[in-house]
Amino acid sequence: MDITENVFKLADEIGPERVVFLYEPRTQMKAIVVVDNVAAGPAIGGVRMAPDVTATEVRRLARAMTYKNVMAGLPHGGGKSGIIADPKTVNKEHVIRTFARAIKSLEEYIPGPDMGTDESDMAYIYDETSRAVGLPLELGGIPLDEIGATAYGVAVCTEVAKDYVPLDMNGASLTIEGFGNVGRPTARFLAERGVKLIATSDSKGTIYNPAGLNVEELIRIKDTTGSVINYKDGQVLKSTDLLMIKTDIFVPAARPDVVTDANADVVDAKLIIEGANIPISETAERMLHERGILVIPDFVANAGGVITASVEYHGGTETQAFERIKSTITRNTKEILDAVKNEKTYPREAAVRIAKQRVLRAMKYREWM
Ligand code: NAD
């Protein structure tokens, strides 16, 4: 299919407003930027760096950001970018600065950190463009990964959603796919609420112990050896085996599309909180719903990071960010789950309907649109 056809195939009444392909011939830096919608304000969205990131993925993630930002009541639209490179093998500062110079004129896009990028990368982008969120402390940033902003929101969301299952948090089992910036603090925040982590994974494999894993020890092992599979007191399985483990709560916190129609039937959980972006395909979410598994969509559950980024951008503090995460995610989770109960719909359908109405209302205020 022609590239133009592919890009416009997914366009609708909301966006995307701009799809930009970047190529810098000297360094061969390749990137995609999608600005989905800016009716509420300049688009905030992460910069993903991965060798296999695609335009379709960036496009879907940009839409998720439009919905996430509008649901969180932020004065920002949604966007996303993907740099096609392996962060482990390239000269990252050089690639990031090249990317930043290429997006300097794209003023309606404010970059933030995502998989493969961090606060230092945002500092380089800020240095080149004077626009970035998720900055280091020294530049006035709130270190959102260090404080576990997204994970805190995931924990808040779990606390609200558990009443709709219903589920007792105390002693409930938990599996987490991916033990990175979202996965690790999610394990911590949920452990504080009495939940028992029984399995987690990274790109090297899964560690499983039905009697429970010690979260602090696991974090130490991941930090010192590079993988959770080096934790001693547990069974080592393949990364993909995590999905099949029977659990009360499952938090996907790694790559997109880990659950699709092809494997949705093996998932054995009562409640799924989407810590990652687009971890479950829409049809798989419906299949899970039909099997009585409650799935809270990404743009509702994992908004903690972007709420913090927006608080930072507008000069607020860490305390204000935590308060806003709690109030926003509590309200949104309840609103969506009440709609599911009363209207016999499923969570993503309810969430998309509410988010879309808000974007369309924001668009009405903008004469140029
Ligand atoms: P990260 O790079 O810190 O961690 C990702 C983890 O996933 C790592 O432990 C990695 O080993 C693991 N992983 C990679 N491939 C895997 C595989 N095939 N199986 C199992 N584990 C695998 O990234 P992150 O910041 O924690 O982000 C994770 C997800 O959450 C992404 O989808 C991201 O877009 C989303 N998200 C992150 C934030 C944030 O604040 N960091 C906010 C919202 C959404």
TrEMBL record:
NAD(+) binds at residues 150, 181. Residues 141-367 form the Glutamate/phenylalanine/leucine/valine/L-tryptophan dehydrogenase C-terminal domain. The keyword Protease does not apply. The active site is at residue 80. Keywords: NAD, Nucleotide-binding, Oxidoreductase. The record marks 114 as: Important for catalysis. The keyword Plastid does not apply. Belongs to the Glu/Leu/Phe/Val dehydrogenases family. This is Glutamate dehydrogenase. It comes from Candidatus Methanoperedens nitratireducens.
